[in-house]
Amino acid sequence: MIKFFRKIRLQLISENNPSSSTGRFSKYLLYAVGEIILVVVGILIALAINNSNENRKSLAQEQVILKQLATDYKANLIQLENKIEMRRRLIAESLNVLDITAKDKTISEDSLSVIFATFFMDPTFDPIENDVMNSGNIKLIQNDSLKQALSHWTSDVKAYSESEHIQHDHYISEIIPFMKEVGIMRNANHVFWRAQELRMGFLDKGKNDKISTIGKSQKPIAVDAILKDPRLEGLVTFIFTFSQVCNLEGQTLKEKMEKIIEILESEIE
């Protein structure tokens, strides 16, 4: 294209062929200005082509990032829904225990073992962490709403995890020691490993059928004494309270994740 413009310029100059020195100077000036214009035009064309190539590369990179984010967030959503369901079971079993103790019901040793096997569940949300924020690649994402949602993600998960950690610490420091002390630990452990629905939080669910159990204790379990233990009501109330707190926060986090996935899918070509 530059050669085309140069050809036209030379043609125009050749048509203007005065013999005076003024004419020669005008001819030289016209030639010089034309060269400058051609150089500028060439630079602008090169920049336009380069910008176009860079834009195509950025768009391609953005699509890769969006697809990976969609995959990660869908996996995170499945995991979160799994943990919410685990806490629903904890809430239901907590209410069951409180009803049994309040009405002074009689239950079997096996039924009590099932209750405490449920309390073995210790759900914690461990999402896949994408490096989009840390790597600076978030600038490649053009959707401002998506960028804002992604930038808030870490703080949202942190707030949710704080409640989870409180429940986890209680599980380690209070629930497990209580189960050991009252002698229900082995029986609850036996039921837990036999009940696949209680192991829904395991990472590799495919290996759930390849496990062993230690069997029930041969020693009698003091069911009535355990149900009348004044500590039980407090322990179960804590399980109920923080399972509910975590699920309320988890539901909010779930809705945010669903919104992020919705935006991601609308942006993926």
Task: Write up this protein.
The chain is an all-alpha fold and 269 residues long. It has one domain. 75% of the residues lie in helices and 0% in strands. The chain contains eight helices and no strands. It is rod-shaped. The two termini are 35 Å apart. The mean pLDDT is 84. The chain crosses the membrane at residues 28-49. It holds the Pfam family DUF6090. InterPro entries: DUF6090. Keywords: Membrane, Transmembrane, Transmembrane helix.
Strand content: under 5%
Total E-strand runs: 0
Distance between the termini: 35 Å
The gyration radius over C-alpha positions equals 35 Å
* Proportion of helical residues: over 70%
Helix/sheet category: mainly alpha
Tell me the count of domains: 1
Largest sheet descriptor? none
The total of helices stands at 8
Shape: rod-shaped
Low-confidence stretches: none
Report mean pLDDT, rounded to a whole number.
84
What is the H/E string?
HHHHHHHH
Assembly type: single chain
Keywords: Membrane, Transmembrane, Transmembrane helix
InterPro entries: DUF6090
Transmembrane segments: 28-49
Pfam families: DUF6090
Q: Could you give a quick summary of the protein structure above?
A:
With 269 residues, the protein is mostly helical.
Main attributes?
mainly alpha; 75% helix; 269 residues; rod-shaped; 0% strand
Question: Which secondary structure elements does this structure contain, and how are they paired or packed?
Answer:
Blueprint: H1 2-15, H2 21-102, H3 109-118, H4 132-135, H5 144-182, H6 185-194, H7 223-228, H8 230-267
Keywords: Membrane, Transmembrane, Transmembrane helix
Pfam families: DUF6090
Transmembrane segments: 28-49
